[in-house]
Design brief:
Blueprint (H helix, E strand, L loop, with lengths): L2 H13 L5 H13 L4 E7 L14 E8 L2 H4 L3 H9 L3 E9 L2 E11 H7 L8 H5 L5 E5 L2 H20 L11 H14 L9 H7 L2 H17 L5 H29 L3 H13 L7 H5 L1 H14 L5
Parallel strand pairs: 2-4
Antiparallel strand pairs: 1-2, 1-5, 3-4
Helix pairs in contact: 1-7, 1-10, 5-7, 7-10, 8-9
Length: 303
């Protein structure tokens, strides 16, 4: 088995691992909202590493992959917004064994998911997330599983290929992954501190080392790259990704119930910055967003 096939097999094995019943309940609720278009439900993020007893106090993260936006939604404008600026993000609650589960889930077509995890895109959002472990809670058929595993493989290759020319080729796997996460954090409107990348790698260090070894074999076959060109590429990625990140936040005010409180909760959770908001700002999140974003920036909530 060559390195690429081994990497894809490893990722497919990760995707197929079982999830807690609470996660499956929430994933079923997500799928039930878009039953005719659903292809797969992916569970990802920090809650992946939490025990089930803590999930009721968490906000679970899912991606719903669909085959067609028109089939996924009753409204044409919602479908159009998803196609032009994917993904659409929604909030959902579900009951499980007497507890209320909460999640946010993103909707994206399989085709755009595959495009967003490849090296042809400058937007880091998808390949930064899905170079990490995730779980395929449900898929329509085995072919979808194969497609998702292939896309996550590309995300992993894109993640490391984008940063290897910027570091010493003899650097340890942990340091290379930390640099990769640091660069993607800098390219998004995120509130994580500098130590977040280290924590992320340390939480799954053996996996990252194994993946790194496989990716180095694949990248080595593709030749060396010019460090100066890759430094310029990261400057371009930061401009594009931050612009798209902010545009999605604005769009989410139309689809995400309680969007403003969610954003501020997440900022407080990751940076410690607390920003009070008025009832008027909650009723008009789109109008309030520029002023609130500037205040958060001034207080050091994100860079």
């Amino acid at each position: 088995m060559d390195a690429r096939a081994e990497l894809t097999a490893l990722i497919a094995q990760e995707l197929a691992q079982p999830v807690a019943p609470a996660v499956r309940t929430m994933a079923d609720a997500v799928r039930a909202r878009h039953p005719n278009a659903a292809l797969a439900v992916l569970f990802y993020g920090s809650c992946l590493r939490r025990p089930e007893s803590l999930l009721a106090d968490s906000l679970l993260d899912f991606y719903l992959l669909v085959d067609d936006y028109k089939t996924a939604y009753a409204g044409a404008m919602t479908a159009l917004a998803n196609r032009i600026l994917p993904p659409n993000v929604f909030y959902l609650e579900a009951q499980h064994e007497g507890a209320t589960l909460r999640c946010k889930y993103a909707v994206i077509s399989l085709a755009q998911f595959q495009e967003g995890t490849s090296r042809t895109t400058d937007n880091v959002s998808l390949w930064a997330r899905f170079s990490q472990q995730s779980r395929l809670v449900w898929s329509r058929n085995p072919q979808v599983l194969q497609a998702v595993a292939g896309a996550c493989t590309e995300a992993t290759l894109t993640m490391l290929a984008s940063v290897l020319p910027l570091v010493d080729r003899s650097a340890a796997a942990d340091a290379i992954w930390q640099r990769a996460f640091e660069e993607t954090y800098r390219a998004e409107v995120r509130s994580e501190g500098r130590d977040r990348a280290t924590e992320l790698v340390n939480a799954d260090a053996e996996r990252y080392r194994r993946v790194h070894a496989l990716v180095r074999g694949i990248i080595g076959e593709e030749g060396q790259a010019d460090a100066a060109a890759f430094t310029a590429a990261w400057r371009r990625r930061r401009r594009i990704s931050k612009l798209l990140n902010f545009a999605r936040l604005v769009k989410a005010t139309f689809t995400f119930d309680g969007a403003l409180d969610y954003v501020l909760w997440k900022v407080k959770r990751h940076s410690g910055v607390v920003l009070p908001v008025t009832d008027w700002q909650r009723r008009h999140p789109l109008l309030s967003a520029p002023v609130l974003a500037w205040k958060l920036y001034r207080r050091g909530a994100f860079r």
